[in-house]
Amino acid sequence: MVCTRKTKTLVSTCVILSGMTNIICLLYVGWVTNYMANVYVRVQEPVPGTKLEEDKGETIRIIERLDRLESVINQHIQEAPQKSEEDAAEPFTDSSLFAHWGQDLSPENRRAALKQFQYYGYNAYLSDRLPIDRPLPDLRPVGCKNLTYPDDLPQVSIVFIFVNEAFSVIQRSIYSAINRTPANLLKEIILVDDNSNNEELKEKLAQYLDDFNKRKPGFIKVVRHNKQEGLIRSRVSGWRAATAPIVALFDAHIEFNVGWAEPVLLRIKEDRRRIISPSFDNIKYDNFEIEEYPLSAQGYDWQLWCRYLNPPKSWWKLENRTAPIRTPALIGCFIVDRLYFEEIGLLDEGMDVYGGENVELGVRVWQCGGSVEVMPCSRIAHIERAHKPYTEDLALHVRRNALRMAEVWMDEFKSHVYMAWNIPQEDSGIDIGDISSRKALRKKLQCKTFRWYLVTVYPEMRTYTDIIAYGVLQNSIKTELCLDQGPDTDNIPIVYICHGMTPQSVYYTSNQQLHVGNLNPTLDDDDNRCLVDVNSRPRLIECNYAKAKRMKLYWDFNQGGPIQNKKSKRCLELLENSDNEFGYQLVLQNCSGQRWTVTNYHKNVIITT
Length: 609
Ligand SMILES: *[C@@H]1O[C@H](CO)[C@@H](O)[C@H](O)[C@H]1NC(C)=O
Ligand SMILES: *[C@@H]1O[C@H](CO)[C@@H](O)[C@H](O)[C@H]1NC(C)=O
Ligand SMILES: *[C@@H]1O[C@H](CO)[C@@H](O)[C@H](O)[C@H]1NC(C)=O
Ligand SMILES: [Mn+2]
Description:
- It is a single chain.
- By secondary structure, this protein is an alpha+beta fold.
- The chain is built from 17 helices and 25 strands.
- The protein folds into three domains: 4-122, no CATH class; 156-394, Spore Coat Polysaccharide Biosynthesis Protein SpsA, Chain A, CATH 3.90.550.10; 467-601, Trefoil (Acidic Fibroblast Growth Factor, subunit A).
- 33% of the residues lie in helices and 22% in strands.
- The strands form six sheets. Strands 14, 15, 16, 17, 18, 19, 20 and 25 form an eight-stranded antiparallel beta sheet that branches. Strands 4-3-2-5-12 form a five-stranded mixed beta sheet, sandwiched between helices.
- Strand 17 (506-509) and strand 18 form a beta hairpin.
- Helix 1 runs parallel beside helix 3 (52-79), helix 2 packs antiparallel against helix 3 and helix 12 runs parallel beside helix 13.
- The longest helix has 28 residues, at 52-79.
- Bound molecules: 2-acetamido-2-deoxy-beta-D-glucopyranose (3 copies) and manganese (II) ion.
- Residues 1, 251, 253, 382 line the site of manganese (II) ion.
- It is a single-pass type II membrane protein.
- It comes from Xenopus laevis (African clawed frog).
- Its EC number is 2.4.1.-.
């Protein structure tokens, strides 16, 4: 689970980067660094007119976002290219593991720690040396301690899924579950091993369970997959083995905080159609310190990557930090009534490996009569790994899963998912598998429309109903170059080798604006940037600002034709310039007949609202 707050550009870029060549990764390092500098400067300016509480939350949020960006960057840019383990001759490399930890280790120990880090994606070397039952700071908001709960709460089965997890990390998850869940409420623990291949886990875990179950027979159960099924089907396997009325589905690299269970169990007892997520804090992957995260709802962008959201206004108005937070979707760990989960259709087991299932579940529950909430008084700390154990190209799975979700649940809004992934809406060439049973499920449950869901549950989501073309823009005189937003530190678009990642995404609207870069998914985000003719130079300016200032932001463009400003009549063209990296400069000049091609062009407006 890697979730972003507000700014998505970087993260989705980085995620996709993991599947790209190192060269492009490295080219982006500078941009990424600049980007962060840029964001940081903006943080300094107070935002007038927002309430104090929200303001404070926002500041924490942004600072935290910077931290998170940092770890994401480390993840994809530093770690991924450094795959060769024989690099271990050089244990003092700039691995992010040693940025805040381990300076005083001996070279041998560094080498050992680095090796484990590369395998697990977190500091397993340190984990092995920390107490299994360490205390956690109580990060619950004020008021949680004063709440009281009835004695007859339902019991819960806790499911931990894992693949190639460090044994000490699993142990700590188990101990925190046992120590911080009232004994009468915890029926059992179920471990789902998604075909791990680390030997340590096999023997040690078996021995450990033997010992444990001698004292408490059947309390810890194990489900082993004999081939890797991925996170989605692992959760369902765990659910199948569970017997308590409530099931909690978690990763095996978490630590429960005190009092996590009662608020959740009460909410579900009151209404079994509620699916609940705890609030997340971070366990830093390098030094295992707990980092407090602000209270958030859990949303997603149009590619269906998860992202944290500011809680809705209605929640702030309550001025009750312990009240449940309405959330459009889930990050991935959740607690659910066992039988309701089945009635509502479990998870989409036709999805592969990772990603999108959490969004699908959230949307499905809402559309089909249930609700989804984050409980502020229920907190868990979760290790955000520096890299994931599923080593294949995650983005491909997420994309496929997102399309399944879009086709079943999103009605006319599914176009947004295709646009966000920059794939054609007809004949995409992507095999999403059979979705007939999911469609039948939707029919059977008589679920509401996605439009209802957007209006009622996810009003923060921006919709784009007027986009007639999207993809990358290539120029006829040099087709390997694409229009690109350029460094985030300025507003000067450039041409760059085509790589198709978000900085090269363009969206041309029916009212003739040309958006460049990430299409911002929620209203919390900054505005999109539009191509504008500023004194005969191409610039990227926030669209609403440019419109308000009556700048030259409208362009004539048809597939395979020139891009010509409606007011200045100048054309967006390439000019040979040997000083430039790729031999060309992006200019506005008298139209010379250069032609542009965008990946996907629809004559008709996609949908209308
Ligand atoms: C919580 O309980 C304590 C002790 O009973 C009391 O002093 C405090 O005012 C209560 N706080 C709230 C927010 O109700
Ligand atoms: C705050 O929310 C909690 C949890 O829903 C509820 O039990 C409590 O009564 C609320 N407090 C106030 C003052 O409304
Ligand atoms: C561009 O076109 C305008 C109007 O046709 C003309 O006056 C001007 O000289 C041209 N500029 C260049 C640099 O060719
Ligand atoms: Mn996780």
